[in-house]
C-alpha cells in the first residue's frame, strides 16, 4: 500500500507547532455525553482488566471497535472519548479498555502494562468474541497503537477472520528512538508528566511485592529510558531497556500484518520522530498504509474550525472503518 502524504494543514494557525497541537487538546478539550458500562475481566494470570463499553443506540448486530489508549492514559482521555462519541453516533459499538494499573484502580499482580503486552489485548478481543461479535476492528493511540500493530503482526495470516481491520495514530514504532527523543530538552514536559505517575506506581507496588520490586535505584530514575531499564524491563522478563525495546517495537512485526491497516502519524509529532518509522518497508506493504500528515502533533489533530465538535482524526477513522 502507498505512503500517503496529506499536503493540506489540519491544525488552526493559533496552534503553530507540534507541541501546541499535542498539548492543547489534552488540557482544554472536554467531551460530554459518554456513558460507559464497566466490566472487569480476569486475566489468565489471575489479574484483572477494566473494560469500558459504550454501545450505539441502533438495534441489531453492530460492528465493534476496540480502542487502546496511550502511555499512562485511560478510557477517559479526550482522544478516546471523542472517538467513541462519533463512532457510537454512526452505529459502532465501542470497547475502550484500561491497561493494568490505569483507569483509577491498581492491578493486583507485580507486573504492569507495557508496549508489547499483546496477551492483554488478546484477552480483550476474546472477551468480545465470547459476547457474539463477529465484526471487530482495532484502534490504538501512541503506545496503544504500537501494541495494536505488534498484535496484528504476531497474528499474521492466521488472524481470526472476525477482525476486519485496524487504524492507529501517533505510533512509536521504534521504541528506543522515541525513548531517546523524549529525553531531549524540548520534550521534558512530556517526560516529566509520564514519570510523575509512573514512579509513584512503583512505590505503591513495592509495598505489596518487596521481593520483586526494589526501590534501591528509584532515585536513579530521571528519564523514561531509566524507568524502562530499571523497572519495566525487569518486571516483564527483559534483560534491560534495549532488549525490551527490540522485543516490543512494532516495526519488527508490521511486515506480517495480513489485514487492512492504516497508520496515521504527523510529521511534526514531537515525541515520535517521523524518520524513526519504517517508511521504506511500509511503502511496499500490501496491507498497510502510512498516512503522513504535515501537522497534528502527538494524538492532536485538532481541526481549524472552532465549531467542529469532532477532530480530524475521528472523522478520518470513521471514514476508514466504514469502508472495511
Automatic annotation (TrEMBL):
The keyword Hydrolase applies. Residues 63-301 form the AB hydrolase-1 domain. It holds the Pfam family Abhydrolase_1. Gene3D superfamilies: alpha/beta hydrolase (3.40.50.1820). Keywords: Hydrolase. One of its GO terms (molecular function) is hydrolase activity. Belongs to the AB hydrolase superfamily. AB hydrolase 4 family. This is Alpha/beta-fold hydrolase. It comes from Dyadobacter fermentans.
Amino acid at each position: 500500500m502507498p505512503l500517503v502524504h496529506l499536503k493540506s494543514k489540519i491544525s488552526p494557525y493559533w496552534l503553530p507547532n507540534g507541541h501546541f497541537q499535542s498539548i492543547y487538546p489534552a488540557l482544554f478539550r472536554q467531551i460530554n455525553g459518554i456513558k460507559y458500562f464497566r466490566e472487569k475481566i480476569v486475566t489468565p494470570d489471575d489479574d484483572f482488566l477494566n473494560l469500558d463499553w459504550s454501545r450505539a443506540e441502533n438495534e441489531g448486530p453492530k460492528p465493534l471497535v476496540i480502542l487502546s489508549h496511550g502511555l499512562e492514559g485511560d478510557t477517559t482521555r479526550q482522544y478516546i472519548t471523542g472517538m467513541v462519541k462519533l463512532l457510537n453516533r454512526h452505529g459502532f459499538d465501542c470497547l475502550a479498555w484500561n491497561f493494568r494499573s490505569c483507569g483509577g484502580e491498581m492491578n493486583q499482580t507485580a507486573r504492569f502494562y507495557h508496549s508489547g503486552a499483546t496477551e492483554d489485548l488478546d484477552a480483550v478481543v476474546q472477551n468480545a468474541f465470547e459476547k457474539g461479535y463477529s465484526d471487530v476492528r482495532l484502534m490504538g493511540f501512541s503506545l496503544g497503537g504500537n501494541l495494536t500493530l505488534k498484535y496484528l503482526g504476531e497474528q499474521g495470516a492466521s488472524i481470526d477472520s472476525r477482525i476486519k481491520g485496524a487504524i492507529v495514530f501517533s505510533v512509536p514504532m521504534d521504541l528506543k528512538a522515541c525513548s531517546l527523543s523524549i529525553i531531549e530538552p524540548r520534550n521534558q514536559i512530556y517526560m516529566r508528566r509520564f514519570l510523575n505517575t509512573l514512579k509513584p506506581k512503583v512505590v505503591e507496588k513495592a509495598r505489596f511485592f518487596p521481593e520483586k520490586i526494589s526501590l534501591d535505584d528509584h532515585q536513579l530514575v530521571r528519564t523514561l529510558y531509566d524507568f524502562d531499564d530499571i523497572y519495566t524491563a525487569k518486571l516483564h522478563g527483559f534483560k534491560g531497556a534495549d532488549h525490551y525495546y527490540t522485543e516490543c517495537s512494532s516495526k519488527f512485526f508490521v511486515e506480517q500484518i495480513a489485514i487492512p491497516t492504516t497508520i496515521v502519524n504527523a510529521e511534526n509529532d514531537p515525541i515520535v520522530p517521523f524518520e524513526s518509522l519504517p517508511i521504506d518497508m511500509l511503502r511496499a506493504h500490501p496491507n498497510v498504509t502510512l498516512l503522513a500528515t504535515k501537522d497534528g502533533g502527538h494524538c492532536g489533530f485538532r481541526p481549524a474550525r472552532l465549531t467542529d465538535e469532532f477532530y480530524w482524526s475521528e472523522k478520518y477513522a470513521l471514514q476508514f472503518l466504514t469502508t472495511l
